[in-house]
Design brief:
157 residues, alpha+beta, Alpha-D-Glucose-1,6-Bisphosphate, Chain A, domain 4, globular
Amino acid sequence: MKGKFQWSVELKIEAEQAKVWNLIEDVSLIPQYHPDVGVVNLFEGKKKRTVGMKYQCVVLEGKKGSCIEEVVDCIPNEKVTTLMREDTWGMDKIFSDFTVETSIRPLDTDTTILKFEAFYTPKGIFNKILNPLILKRMTKKRSLSVMHGIKDLAEKQ
């Protein structure tokens, strides 16, 4: 259940693929690399991403609120796809089927390429007009800050 492809971004991380995957796979680590998320609530007590797993990311400062994400695809050590099911900011009024596919691949034994691809469909004519002007750039920029958080954490360990 993906929306329309919107953008893709890659980042080189000086860490082996297994280390990067361990950070991505464990949702309890999200607050350590996501600049906005302060808490992750686990609905089933599981920390590792598996298909069907849902969890809540809570932003405690700035524009406070939360979103519930669901893992809709997961190939261990390769990729995970998450779908934003609901949020308190009103993103579900702007986008439908907001999905991010996170993938990793080794460049060599000590270097990994992290890639985010975003899929969504803007809702309504106003958001369809805003998408190429602002929304794509805004969502890509926020995702890039998350990617840099993953990079910093992986390269420190």
